[in-house]
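Encode chain A's predicted structure.
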Amino acid sequence: MGVWARFRRRDPLEHCPICTADAVSAVDRESLDASFAQLELRCGVCGTWRRLRTSSAAAELLEHKLERQCRWMRELAELSDRERMVSDADAFVDALRSEIEGADDFLSRTRA
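Encoded structure for chain A:
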């Protein structure tokens, strides 16, 4: 089965025609009239750029889906950052507890 046969079964707005990845992002949208819009899309995997004409409703659906995906990725990144910060703080506290036994020890390490 060729690339085009696989691609025809997928949504052309959401899948790259070259590598068939579903990592397509809308870069630009131009309303042509009340019913149609021209989209400029880019594949995040292979970098292919393309322009296509689609219904305004389909363009709007794609835009909402991409906004949801961006929000989800942002939330995951924030969660990962929080987990990393907690882990770093715990490691720092453990290091302090194991290496510093009192005020004199702390002062000697900070003034060196």
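The CA atoms of residues 19 and 46 lie 7 Å apart.
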